[in-house]
Design brief:
By secondary structure, the chain is mainly alpha-helical. It has one domain. It has six helices and no strands. α5 crosses α6. The longest helix has 24 residues. The radius of gyration is 17 Å and the shape is globular.
């Protein structure tokens, strides 16, 4: 709907990046609403259904912060994130997004293999 109504791709990293300096978006209102909606939506659905899903995220907070920074760097280098390339770009048959999606999916598969089978972590 964001593409149809605003002509914008719903790539989360691009939406958030547009809120940060030096971007200083003049269109901050819809960006803030989008991000707040992502945070609030699960609680709204939970209040209607009576089930609020609380994901169990195992791990160390420091490592999660480091992983977040690494993902942020990756999205900057890759020109977008999984939602922008993998969902929106693939749906538009964007060649750039297809290559980006194949790259991050292959990297994820290799990382899980190395971490679980070669290093023995998380088994």
């Amino acid at each position: 709907m964001l593409l149809a109504l605003n002509g914008r791709i719903a790539g989360i990293s691009g939406i958030v990046k547009g809120l940060l300096p030096p971007e200083g978006a003049t269109d901050a209102a819809w960006r803030i609403c989008f991000v707040v909606g992502m945070v609030v939506a699960p609680w709204l659905v939970g209040s209607v259904t009576g089930e609020i899903a609380v994901p169990a995220v195992p791990g160390n907070g420091l490592w999660m912060a480091v992983a977040g920074v690494v993902v942020g760097v990756g999205t900057a280098l890759g020109g977008g994130c999984t939602s922008g390339h993998g969902v929106c770009g693939m749906a538009r048959l964007s060649g750039r997004s297809i290559v980006a999606t194949l790259t991050f999916m292959a990297t994820g598969v290799i990382t899980v293999f190395v971490v679980r089978h070669l290093l023995g972590w998380g088994s």
